[in-house]
Write a structure and sequence with these properties.
Number of helices: 10
Strand content: 15-25%
CATH class of the largest domain: Alpha Beta
Radius of gyration: 20 Å
CATH architecture of the largest domain: 3-Layer(aba) Sandwich
Number of domains: 2
Largest sheet: 6 strands, parallel
Distance between the termini: 65 Å
Number of strands: 12
Strand order of the largest sheet: 2-1-3-4-5-11
Length: about 280
Amino acid sequence: MSGDSTGAVGLVLARPAHLLGVEPFFMEFIAGIEERLAQRDLSVLLHVVADHEAEIAAYRRWAARGLVDAVVMVNPVVDDPRPAVLSEIALPTVVVGDSYLPSVRTDHTGPIAEALGRLLELGHRRIARVTGPGALAHTRARTEALLAGCAQAGVDPVVVEGDYSEEAGAKLTAALLTSLEPPTAILYDNDVMAVAGLAAATALGIAVPEQLSLVAWDDSTLCRLASPALTTMSVDVHQFGVSVAESVLELVDGASVTPRWSPTARYLQRDTTAPPPSS
């Protein structure tokens, strides 16, 4: 690093602040980034805002005042305006997701195919998915992968959009389970919604996994302590953060940034998946 380093790497999260207190993903992700950056006496400057407009305003302030050496941009959306702004203001950036800027990419298709394959092997044909926000590029990639896999298997899935919150997980699960043709398996886009979905099923008197199988995304303590313990698509989120930090360090050193992929989500069988009940 140059002698005029600020000693900080910026991370702006455009999301409701209350979710950060209950969703383990970003805390583990940031811990991985900080662990690696600390070895070079760098730290994370974290800023939580309401939307992308406020996020862009923060980038402009940081660039004008020289407050950070680089930034990590997360959660790309379709037609995302942020990469163009970051290029315009010449703020060195590592994108977590697909981008023409230096990035750490994630395979969404393979893990969805694995999760769907496991459910199909168990005999499930009525499958639902509770997603994160639909504008997110990775939400769309997972949905497209699910629809493609289901079409190949002759299955017509139900996809409903959530926001990663406990409230969304409970409300959407209850709506699915009280519909005319309730699913026998539900795949969630995060752990919080899955735990809330498990509670909603229990409240309706639906036994898991005897009557309903549930699969969470992003393994966490929440999944392990749930009763029954949740089957998950498990990701090494801490290592994900370390990989992002490695790219950041190459960027601030002026080196070529190595193309990297995040750890692949893997199916981790626990106690919330089983064959569907016989008709």
